[in-house]
Amino acid sequence: MGRKPDPSKPHSGGAASPRAARRAQPSPVFLGTALFVLGFVSLFTGHIVTDADWSRIRSRWRSKQVRNYEPINIWKSRYSNQYYGCSWRSTNFRSAVPENSSTGYLLIATSGGLNQQRIGITDAVVVSRILNATLVVPELDHHSFWKDDSDFSDIFDVDWFISYLSKDVTIVKSIPYEVMMSMDKLPWTMRAPRKSMPDFYIDEVLPILMRRRALQLTKFDYRLTNELDEELQKLRCRVNFHALRFTNSIQTLGEKLVQKLRVMTSRYVAVHLRFEPDMLAFSGCYYGGGEKERKELGEVRKRWDTLPQDLSAEDERSRGKCPLTPQEIGLMLRALGFSNGTYLYVASGEIYGGEETLQPLRDLFPNFYTKEMLAGDDLEPFLPFSSRLAAIDFIVSDESDVFVTNNNGNMAKVLSGRSLFHANLSFISVNL
Questions:
Q1: Keywords, A to Z (predicted)?
Q2: Which of 219, 222, 210 lies closest to 191, judged by CA?
């Protein structure tokens, strides 16, 4: 039997005694201090890294903010040089069909004011091309709100119109007398649906045209779709931007007004202010004139049989259908950065409310001019003709440095297209 080990003597081998083991363990105070130091260092270094990362992010953000808030040239679009006109005829675009080989004579009765009729004339040329028809110079609207009895040749250079488009469409001033006498019946009259596709004209219009030899399309505005092939779109551009040239008397007076403005200032803003009674009545909006305004504009609105008579003015404004007032246009221009020293040319007809309505805009921009102010007695021969007056406004607006409108009407559409085509006009589109 062996002896029990003597606890008073150290053990020469095997595991250490519990007391020795306890002496070998680190002190809790030491461990706590070490962990605290390590944690503090980690936190400190992590904080430094986080600050460095945040500093880099903040630096990048600030640089982006600086780029986003670079001074904007309110007189010229930075993207204007990225646009160019493309109206040239392709080599594979066949020549116009001669009059004696065409499918018949297409007569067009346009509708609306000058610029609405301009759009109709443009589409009339394209429809004639689609039908291989001979186009008779379009008839302008003499019965609309404006009551202007001007003919095509009173506003546009008709000989230039026919000559410029001679390779695309055959155009005549009237149906030849011998052809009219040989017809069994008068030209057929019909109205195409709005934004009709080319197939409609080929399937529905062409058979009647070939059978009757002459056909008239009435109220021809926006009667052709925008979904056309590239060559027909180019033809639209040739008509709108080249073939439709104003008569010499209109063009001369328009350029004279531009020259007068250029003598006073190197640049000016043209404002197309559609605030006439017909425009406000058509919109169905209310401008705070009380029962008098509601009654007057309500009577004007009755002239359009197809318009609802019970529109909510509040709903129309919330939908963005209300033209801006002269004061709202002025405040918008000032907010954009145009100073009160800016020269304004205001293109408009009879403003509802007269000078009282215009005064807030005059106060914001004292250098305020209209065709009446600039032309003086030279304007007198044009006064009975609203479309000729509108043509003068068109010329001065087209030559401006910045064009802005209080509505999204036809003149705004035509001039915005011209600003893109010629890349020489800064156009401010109002998001109503």
A1: Carbohydrate metabolism, Fucose metabolism, Glycosyltransferase, Membrane, Transferase, Transmembrane, Transmembrane helix
A2: 219
